[in-house]
Amino acid sequence: MLLLVAFNSHAEDGHNLWLRAKSTGPVSVVCAKTSPTLAIAKEELEQGWQGKKDAKIALTITKDKAIKGDGFKLSENEVQANTELGILYGAYELLRRQQTGQAISSEISNPSYERRVLNHWDNLDGSIERGYAGQSIFWHDEAKGFAVTEKDRTLWKEYARANASIGINGAVLNNVNASQLMLTTECLQKAKAIAEVLRPYGIKTYLSIKFSSPQLIGGLKTSDPLNPEVIQWWNNKIKEIYALIPDFGGFLVKANSEGQPGPQDFGRTHADGANMLADAFKPYGGIVMWRAFVYEANSKDRAAQAYKEFMPLDGQFRDNVIIQVKNGPIDFQPREPFNPLFGAMKKTSVMPELQITQEYLGHSIHLVFLAPMWEECLKSETYQEGTGSTVARVTDGSIFPQKHTAIAGVANIGLDANWCGHDFAQANWFAFGKLAWNDQLTSEKIADEWLKLTFGKTQASIEWNVCFLSPVKQMMLESHEAAVNYMMPLGFHHIFAPQDHYGPGPWWGPEGVRKDWTPPYYHQADSKGVGFDRTQTGSNAVSQYHEPLSSQFSDVTTCPEVYLLWFHHVPWTYKLKNGRTLWDEICYRYDMGQKQVRQFQKVWDQVEPYVDADRFAAVQRRLRNQSGNTQIWKDGCLLYFQQFSKMPIPYDIARPVYDLDYIIKNFTKDRP
Amino acid sequence: MLLLVAFNSHAEDGHNLWLRAKSTGPVSVVCAKTSPTLAIAKEELEQGWQGKKDAKIALTITKDKAIKGDGFKLSENEVQANTELGILYGAYELLRRQQTGQAISSEISNPSYERRVLNHWDNLDGSIERGYAGQSIFWHDEAKGFAVTEKDRTLWKEYARANASIGINGAVLNNVNASQLMLTTECLQKAKAIAEVLRPYGIKTYLSIKFSSPQLIGGLKTSDPLNPEVIQWWNNKIKEIYALIPDFGGFLVKANSEGQPGPQDFGRTHADGANMLADAFKPYGGIVMWRAFVYEANSKDRAAQAYKEFMPLDGQFRDNVIIQVKNGPIDFQPREPFNPLFGAMKKTSVMPELQITQEYLGHSIHLVFLAPMWEECLKSETYQEGTGSTVARVTDGSIFPQKHTAIAGVANIGLDANWCGHDFAQANWFAFGKLAWNDQLTSEKIADEWLKLTFGKTQASIEWNVCFLSPVKQMMLESHEAAVNYMMPLGFHHIFAPQDHYGPGPWWGPEGVRKDWTPPYYHQADSKGVGFDRTQTGSNAVSQYHEPLSSQFSDVTTCPEVYLLWFHHVPWTYKLKNGRTLWDEICYRYDMGQKQVRQFQKVWDQVEPYVDADRFAAVQRRLRNQSGNTQIWKDGCLLYFQQFSKMPIPYDIARPVYDLDYIIKNFTKDRP
What we know:
Two copies of one chain form a homodimer. By secondary structure, chain A is of the alpha/beta class. Helices cover 38% and strands 10% of the residues of chain A. Chain A has an eight-stranded parallel barrel with strand order 6-7-8-9-10-11-12-13. In chain A, α12 (426-437) crosses α13. The longest helix of chain A is centred in the last third of the chain and has 33 residues, at 613-645.
């Protein structure tokens, strides 16, 4: 029995995330004030201190105009901030600097976005839409009621701590495809219990709501946002919420999108719906995050629709409404150009929505570090206010005078011991927090820090840097491009198998299914070529981009090749800049993606001496699976598209090992 | 309708095997005699003639002492032989020379073995043991009776023609695991019908018998071979057979082997059993082929048993008994050293048994040309009568004065349109016939001829030689070594998954199963090393080989490395001649096997312009499957043995993509 306990205590299940520092000596923490948040800051410093022994450190709350929001100023022996939460963030950053061996000079760190929010797509029955790390940490089987246990509270506290350590200050507790039951008193009571655990860590609680709740649980005959009874119902409901959760953050709303109800059901606009709720929130300081993820069946181009629907409403939204816009115009694909709404809506608060959970990037099986993809989006030039109007700057308040700024990440967190399924998926949670705090950070810095915190020792050796840190970091930084290569290179998008969004499915398009839910809609392959024509000769979605982008994307010779098939229908024999035909380059890209993952396997196998056995084996196993998957992607896509190109796979490329019919039959939905 | 017929007539289903020549001009064939066999020879020459137009060719039956058996002498305008069958063989060879562009100079071709026999493991219900090309061409569902149709006769005739064209002159019509029903009158009537179709082509009919038939269908109380009633029963039965089939060849007997009944059940020896039957055959010129494939449960070394059981009987067998000995001491493994009975039984006729059907070599999915394996065996030095006592020469009558010589091949033929499942498996049927006729032939010559006949045009171009013949021949010649590499390199043997003998199963060894039916019995892996110790410190099976082989095999430093783990239990860290450790070399071998098959895929894909679409696609598909299989073999074996070696797979080798538990669960029995 004892032996078993001892063994278990040594097993490394990844539960501690990037929070592994243990104090190497006493420290004296001095703070004039006391509060739950400050107590946490003090405790963290004492338990994680790695600086000089017997040092004294002051936690100082002042008013410093150079410090914004919950920002902080760090020095060797002081954390200074305008708010208690700023102190806590400063404490975590100080510990991180110590653990990663970064110098601490007097410097200010301010958050890029006011609201840095995780969106949990957690259902009230405990399942998670697009969740790959177990059931919900918030909700269990609703049939069993909404009781809260000490075990729940312990986990929520660990969750809050992890979030606070990287600056996340908001959590939407339930799925955007919301149940009306969320707003019942029973559910709100549970939300209150969660909010109380999160509060000392500075995490505000938000909820997703179903727009037809007034009818479904309020007994009203309509949910028309201009109807006085409906307005009253929402006012009452929001009042009820604030009585339970005084610091409640607001609502996240998916309306008139993929079958969800919304104001358009009553002849009203998105602005009518959002503003009605915003007005009700106004007295409490709450906000409405209104999603722009809308598209109709049988439209000419799904990618062009959000812009068409929302741009006419620019200027009509209240200042406590934020339009939540996915990074790209379609749906979290391996690579998309940025959504043209960014920067275009100049009189409206707009917030980026990133997807941390890997719905389209290999679930919790593939090792894909998402920071490079997000960095690529955030640093994209929109040109909406001249050079420098990056997606980051048009959303973080640098350029437009938004009342509120925010950024959302769809969480990848579940009940799995290591929270995220894949140990390296923790890095994506971490990266989201870091980028939400500082949208100018590089992926390299994030990966470096995360690896040191998650796999490193306090005193990293040169050997560790050379033999572990450097190759593993390189693998992480290359991993997204590899995934693009083996899944959807050159601008391919949404050629996934249906439902699961895991394996390839470019062939999938049964009769009777909405065309825009089938891959052929997106790849448009025929005997002449492949790709979606979004130029003037096609859907003209290019016109939604500000010049010079519109012209650049529209011209096949200037369009970045990474977006080639996103914007153009290109002949198979078209010569790319490297001299290869399009068909050959498609082949080489899929092959390169496979080779990259095979190389990742070698990298990982060689760092075995530097990793605990449990995490080593877990990651090794997933890399094998990922590597096997690249074969299915490559064979499936090349053999499928070859039916149109009628050209041979270049003979220096390893040949398929699966037949197309075998893949279609066996792998279209399921994982191998 | 017409269109469909036209299309079908162009589809290439491989049914024509290596017999594709069509006459390019008239020829006048002159023969003094007429007979069914001579008529065939004449017809073949007329329909396949590719020589000078209006040539005259004489078929001359003489008595020429330089010509042996059914041998022949060829010249530009004459086929000369001592027998009608010799004329037929000469005619086929003449046509082959024309089609492959080989010169015809006056030369004699004599058969190496008197009897060149296919063993069909066909059951009376139409199934075929270890058959991978459809059901039996001879037997259909026995419940439906034994009626013979015209379709049957057409197919048998095509079968007989194919055999005759390569010199095969015998066919055992049913499985060695024989049903007693074979000797019932109803079945014998069907055998008679088959024999009548085969006869003009010179194919003698043989049958496998169940040794306990006197009890099972004769109503006797015993099958003791010394019992007068039993002897009488067999005499009567053989008499009955010869009344139906006057040229009947004899019996093939699997006795006291894998549960089959035999003389030992009655306290008699193999010699007692075989001689009793041989005596009954004597008046008719029939023979008994008695298999030496015997091994007991729980023996120290299965490989040593046939020798132990049969050597004491040397000299006791009648001269019309031939002991049928598998090429290696275990069971048709990807590579075995030759069976030590070859050359050791000096006073007994011994015939090699080769397996054409790829029970242990990838069934009809893997492309494995078996001629190199057989050539390796036939040319192995036994040293039993000094240098030059090769397996071929000690069995073909060159060295010992055997009354009868013979060689058997377990057929790979079924109802599949192309006879053999894999188009390239036809080459193994072809190669068996060619080697049975001339046991000194090289694999290269056989492959060259088969490719020209099967895929070539009459006037082969230099382009065809360079772009098709040369690379495809190279692939064939390398294919067996590749299979050894990815399945069982360095002397590994019988580490197959159970029953199916297709995928890897080195881990398979459930409680209660005979140890010698489980792979761990054969590989003996432990923390120290791997391999079966057959030296003096182990089973001492090495002592069954004649010096200098016994000493050479016994010493780990002189043992050929291809047999290393067959004869030795070798430490994982043992240094091979190339300087690598055993473990590393095992890894490199599996990896090389995979690379070789991947290369075969490239070879095949590049010859697409030279192959009809049907056979191209069929072979391409199988190569993909084979290539995928190499991954399962490599990953399964390396991850399994790594549990013992505890050494890393060299880092320049592509990593596994499957986990061991996944392979064990999903692939141990079934094909992917």
